[in-house]
Amino acid sequence: MLQFFKTTYKEFEKYLKRVQKGADEEDIHQLRVALKKLKTILHIVDPENKILKSSERKLIRRLFKLAGIIREAQVNIALVQHIDDKPIEMYCSFLAEQITYGAKALQRFTSDKKTTDFFSRNTVKKISKKTKHFTKSKQLDAFRIKVYRRIERYIHYTGDKILHEVRKEIKHLLFITKFDPKANNNKGLLDSLADTLGTWHDQAVLLYSLESFSVKDPRIFRHLESIKYWNRIRAVQMRAEVKSFLGGI
Questions:
Q1: How far is the C-alpha of 64 from the C-alpha of 59, rounded, in Å?
Q2: 3-state SS of 89-142?
Q3: What does the mean pLDDT of the chain come to?
Q4: Of 64, 85, 112, 194, which residue is 20 to 30 A from 56 by alpha carbon distance?
Q5: Tens digit of pLDDT for each residue in 106-121?
Q6: Distance between CA atoms of 176 and 178, rounded to whole angstroms?
Q7: Cβ contacts of residue 222 below 8 Å, gap of 6+?
Q8: How confident is the model at residue 95 (pLDDT cuts 50, 70, 90)?
Q9: Contact, 19 vs 67, CB < 8 A?
Q10: Which of 26, 37, 39, 48 is nearest to 177 (CA)?
């Protein structure tokens, strides 16, 4: 697990430097992935949230949010740019402006910051020590059980918004397949679930964005019903797949 942490931390350093220069789509995506992996590590080795300082948490949340605004706009453009429709063209132009604004905000925020502002040398030492002396079977089993229980609890809630939380938990399980043999046994199923949840998530984010834009151009409403319909179908399918996954554990 120590090696996984070292590799992930280097990825964070690498992509932080890259986004300081511009809003490349893949760099922003990889920066967010690295942050998610680091969060998973902290969930396992520091369940009581004692390692990160409050100032570090604040900076990490801000970085993740700014990168997320750009990433969502980039994904939304990719999902609708094939549609030959004037309101959609206007919507894509609106998103392009968001990306430009978001990139400037991200660069302003990160321009004077180093990796150690987000994870101080002392914090990195503490995480390294925890991962080095990591009691694999005991702590991983406890973490995995907690994740399964949260998913089981979430999946019984009504409303599709809870699926966002299920997706986060599936991501946790996918990340630990790198060093957890038991989780790795289910990697094929987890990959499939992550893909299905990812498709639903992207469409749900797009739907929310289109609904917000409809205030500017009501003609956008004609595209909403189809997206809503298919995402309701996906939500039902996902709940069934997640329940099947839990039943097979």
A1: 9
A2: HHHHHHHHHHHHHHHHHHHHHHCCCCHHHHCCHHHHHHHHHHHHCCCHHHHHHH
A3: 89
A4: 194
A5: 989 998 888 889 999 9
A6: 5
A7: none
A8: very high
A9: yes
A10: 37
Tokens of residue 119, six digits: 């994870």
Those residues with Cβ within 8 angstroms of residue 242's Cβ, 6 or more apart along the chain or in another chain: 151, 155, 166, 193
Q: Whole-model pTM above 0.85?
A: yes
Q: Are 124 and 199 in contact (CB under 8 A)?
A: no
Distance CA 189, CA 212 (A): 35
- Residue 235, classed as helix, strand or coil, is helix
With pLDDT > 70 as the criterion, what percentage of the chain qualifies?
A: 98
Please compute the mean of the pLDDT values over residues 31-58 and round it to a whole number: 92
**Among 208, 205, 170, which residue's Cα sits nearest to residue 189?**
170
Confidence grade of residue 105 (pLDDT, cut at 50, 70, 90): very high
